[in-house]
Amino acid sequence: MNHSLSTSATVGLLAPLAVLLLVAFGYPLGLVAWSSVYVDGVFTLKAYQNLSGSTLFYRVLGNTLQISAVATLVSLVLGYLIALHLAALEPRRRMPYMVLVMLPFWTSILVKSFAFGIVLGDNGIINQAAGLLTGRTEKFELMFNRVGVIIGMSNFLLPFTVFPILASLLAQNRSLHRVAEIMGAGPIRIFLRITLPLSLPGVLAGVLMAMTLSMGMYITPALLGGRKDLMMANLVDIYTRQTLDWGLASAIAIVLLFMSGILIALLLRVRRAEGLGV
After folding, report:
1. Which of 49, 141, 163, 185 could pair covalently with 189 via S-S, beta carbons 3.0-4.6 A apart?
2. For 67-111, how does the pLDDT look when each residue is reduced to its tens digit (9 = 90+)?
3. Which CATH class, in words, describes the domain spanning 45-275?
4. In the beta sheet, which residues pair with residue 42?
């Protein structure tokens, strides 16, 4: 009896959320999927056929994968170093630094992308500081190219790599490190044989989250990138607003959704395996 009541209460509590998700996400997503196969009043796969023969689509797909991979790698390296430092701190000292890592979440990505113009521009902080220190008049090209896109995306992705890795590091049994030290292992050997292998689930989770988010980036490539740095989301915007080809734009969105869905499925599998202690 109690079990049936608890089940009914759970269903009752989750029903409003399920309806909200269905209306806010399911319905628009269904419209996009329908628009990709129903063009000019006819059910057709013409949009997907056009994509399969489009050199622009493959070029932008390659850009998306390359930029996402590099931004994920940069955020992973920086995130691992930050997580290592945070894991070595006492809990009371760790909290302020964790707040600093969370700061990017408190600012709109649009505002941050504009702010990077002040830092990375030709007359930005970095170029002015370099000119004062070295006396050089040449400017570092840090905006409207792939460098600016990578910097902006890495800034956004950093918290998504720090916290999964930090969770894996904090879950490690510290006695393993002490035993290794007693046996004569140095810091590098301990890191390579104990710390790094045990933190791999957090690393993989961070990589999958960062890769999933970066593949759908729109604002950062649009504001900090150049013509050669178009990503999938930017291509959807071009077909939607400039060429007005809604069928092709919807097909690209569905392809991007499918790719992101594969990464999310892998992420859920990693989290489930981590929870089971596999």
Report:
1. 185
2. 999 999 999 999 999 999 999 888 888 988 888 888 877 888 888
3. mainly alpha
4. 39
